């Protein structure tokens, strides 16, 4: 009898515990709702089942990990390491393209060129930063996103967008909210997940987990490394959630 | 505070000042200040959270209303040349105010970049165009082709006022003016025309499109002289079908806003063209949905709030009425305060600072309204009492708002 009650309690505990809690602070204790894909990644799920996954990462400077201790600390490289550690038998192929100050039109052109060269299963597209900080046309960014996402889907791949970095400086000096909202809505119109980097970084800053802007000069490189690692973990969690969604969600996050 | 308000006592039988326009302009000015401080928690409570239009639309419509009222009266009393000169004088003030605010912005970017010591982290940011090409940046700012973030409403206002100079005589032919204005709006939207920006692209607020809202306001504000006195202000008459349509439009707008804010995953369930339409409701070219939203709102408010509503003369409404009556200085100070607010929240955005920024901001705006009203009374050598005396009102030029005249 007591044994039965204990089992019931254990089962209840398992059912009630939020996924993030069971993982013991997933993705640097990010709020779980920011790690939810809210959309399926079917092409990624299929590729992972066949044991071979090709990911294309395109963006502006931040995909290259500026301010980190070295190229190996950039979030795309960290993401690759995390996936390899989790799925050692997966044949993983990752290509990263980016440069300082690229606009959405320019990164969109890179994606089109790379997709024409070789097939990918998943495209991680970091966009919108150049537009927001330079005050470029919002409508043009939205059009480029619509066109780019349509191309990715036509090529049979999944897409995940990544929005702006949280920065009090940018918030005070650029109209970044308008660009963030437009990016989020455009992704939603295509059923594409967004890694909400702004909200994630703001949450990490508020919880004193990592705050590059407030880090002292000596701590800044370490903080930037940690930020890139946290971002990689968050991206991994989001991709796993999208894959689970594609598989009908019996899988874990 | 209330004795400083112009048109406080409705004049017997005469057309008294419409305090509704003042009160709502005051509220719009307050919302503009709030919305110009990103990270401000109060920003979740302004008009943009429940309607497709926001304080910018309200401000432009009411600016048009005030311009039509004041310069239309000047036109009727002194002729076009005098009215045009008065408009140009006001334009000069607006232009200088804009350039002043631009200098403040430049100083702020420099200051906060230094304060955050974030040169490495901000390496990819091209915010500091002024540091890179100071002479060119200055020239482009003077040409209104370089508009930093949050400094885009005044250039819009300047161009709208400039457009009013040749359009003034057309106030007497409202259907002609409205026809030209709407035709211009349609052409601009169809062909994607805009004034050029320094960085490739157009103005954040496209004056060629926004003029339709401004001229609508002008026509609502213009009251032609008839037999030596002003006639009744034109208004769109009450009609149940129109009321129903306006309510429907606002409800649909509310649904679209709520989907955008809280239910974006539903967008994927919609047919692709509809989903794309909902993500392309642009503010730059005053998307028709936004235009409909602000006009529906104005129509409903215009009929829901009578001219002589008691609350307009209440203690609570007085600060906003005063702010609205001194719109230009309040607006400029608001943009300036937004800089300070952004700097403050950049340093600390927890709730004590949030409360301090919002209280100080509102208090400063109200003070500007009070000082403006007090100064105006002293300058005219009038007591507050005689200013509300119907006879005195009849002798003076029609009560003009400081947003537009003088």
Automatic annotation (TrEMBL), chain A:
InterPro entries: NonGDSL (IPR057572), SGNH_hydro_sf (IPR036514). Residues 1-23 form the signal peptide. Coiled coil: none annotated. One of its GO terms (molecular function) is hydrolase activity, acting on ester bonds. PROSITE patterns: PROKAR_LIPOPROTEIN (PS51257). Keywords: Signal. The keyword Signal applies. SUPFAM superfamilies: SGNH hydrolase (SSF52266). This is GDSL-like Lipase/Acylhydrolase family protein. It comes from Belnapia rosea. The lineage of its organism: Bacteria, Pseudomonadati, Pseudomonadota, Alphaproteobacteria, Acetobacterales.
Automatic annotation (TrEMBL), chain B:
InterPro entries: UCP028704_OpgC. This is OpgC protein. Pfam families: OpgC_C (PF10129). Keywords: Membrane, Transmembrane, Transmembrane helix. The chain crosses the membrane at residues 21-38, 58-75, 95-116, 149-168, 175-196, 208-225, 237-260, 287-305, 326-345, 351-375. It comes from Belnapia rosea. It comes from the Bacteria. The keyword Membrane applies. Coiled coil: none annotated.
């Amino acid at each position: 009898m007591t044994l039965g009650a204990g089992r019931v309690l254990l089962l209840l505990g398992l059912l009630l515990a939020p996924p993030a809690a069971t993982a013991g602070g997933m993705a640097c204790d990010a709020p779980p709702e920011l790690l939810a894909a809210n959309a399926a990644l079917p092409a990624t799920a299929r590729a992972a089942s066949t044991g071979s996954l090709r990911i294309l990462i395109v963006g502006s400077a931040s995909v290259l990990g500026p301010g980190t201790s070295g190229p190996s600390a950039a979030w795309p490289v960290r993401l690759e390491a995390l996936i390899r550690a989790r799925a050692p038998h997966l044949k993983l192929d990752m290509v990263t393209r980016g440069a300082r100050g690229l606009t959405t039109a320019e990164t969109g052109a890179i994606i089109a060129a790379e997709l024409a060269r070789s097939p990918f299963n998943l495209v991680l597209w970091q966009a919108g930063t150049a537009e927001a900080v330079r005050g470029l046309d919002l409508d043009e960014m939205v059009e480029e996103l619509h066109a780019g996402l349509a191309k990715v889907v036509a090529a049979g791949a999944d897409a995940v967008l990544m929005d702006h970095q949280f920065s009090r400086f940018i918030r005070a000096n650029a109209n970044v909210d308008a660009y963030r909202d437009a990016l989020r809505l455009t992704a939603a119109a295509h059923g594409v997940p967004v890694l909400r980097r702004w909200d994630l970084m703001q949450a990490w800053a508020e919880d004193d987990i990592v705050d590059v802007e407030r880090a002292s000069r000596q701590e800044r490189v370490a903080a930037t490394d940690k930020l890139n690692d946290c971002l990689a973990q968050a991206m991994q969690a989001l991709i796993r959630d999208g894959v689970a969604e594609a598989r009908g969600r019996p899988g874990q996050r | 505070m209330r004795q400083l308000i112009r048109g406080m006592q409705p004049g017997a039988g005469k057309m008294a000042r419409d305090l509704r326009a003042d009160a709502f302009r005051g509220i719009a000015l307050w919302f503009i200040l709030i919305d110009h401080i990103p990270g401000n928690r109060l920003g979740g409570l302004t008009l943009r959270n429940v309607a497709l239009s926001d304080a910018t639309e309200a401000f432009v419509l009411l600016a048009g209303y005030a311009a039509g009222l004041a310069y239309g009266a000047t036109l009727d009393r002194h002729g076009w040349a005098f009215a045009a000169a008065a408009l140009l004088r006001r334009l000069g003030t607006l232009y200088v105010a804009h350039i002043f605010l631009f200098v403040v912005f430049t100083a702020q970017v420099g200051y906060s970049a230094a304060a955050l010591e974030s040169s490495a982290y901000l390496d990819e940011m091209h915010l500091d165009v002024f540091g890179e090409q100071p002479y060119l940046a200055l020239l482009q700012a003077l040409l209104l082709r370089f508009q930093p973030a949050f400094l885009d409403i005044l250039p819009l206002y300047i161009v709208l006022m400039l457009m009013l100079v040749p359009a003034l005589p057309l106030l007497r032919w409202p259907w002609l003016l409205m026809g030209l204005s709407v035709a211009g709006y349609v052409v601009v939207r169809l062909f994607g025309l805009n004034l050029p920006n320094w960085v490739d692209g157009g103005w954040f607020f496209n004056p060629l499109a926004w003029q339709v809202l401004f001229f609508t306001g002008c026509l609502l504000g213009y009251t032609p002289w008839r037999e030596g006195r002003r006639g009744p202000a034109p208004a769109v008459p009450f009609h149940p079908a129109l009321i129903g349509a306006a309510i429907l439009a606002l409800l649909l707008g509310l649904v679209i806003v709520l989907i955008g804010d809280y239910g974006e995953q539903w967008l994927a369930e919609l047919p692709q063209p509809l989903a794309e339409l909902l993500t392309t409701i642009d503010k730059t070219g005053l998307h028709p949905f936004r235009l409909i939203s602000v006009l529906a709102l104005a129509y409903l408010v215009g009929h829901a709030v009578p001219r002589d509503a008691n609350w307009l003369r209440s203690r609570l409404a007085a600060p906003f009425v005063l702010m609205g009556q001194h719109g230009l200085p309040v607006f400029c100070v608001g943009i300036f305060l937004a800089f300070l607010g952004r700097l403050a929240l950049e340093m600390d955005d927890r709730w004590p600072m949030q409360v301090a920024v919002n209280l100080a901001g509102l208090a400063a705006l109200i003070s500007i309204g009070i000082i403006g009203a007090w100064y105006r009374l002293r300058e005219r050598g009038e007591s507050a009492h005689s200013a509300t005396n119907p006879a005195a009102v009849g002798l003076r030029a029609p009560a003009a708002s400081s947003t537009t005249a003088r």
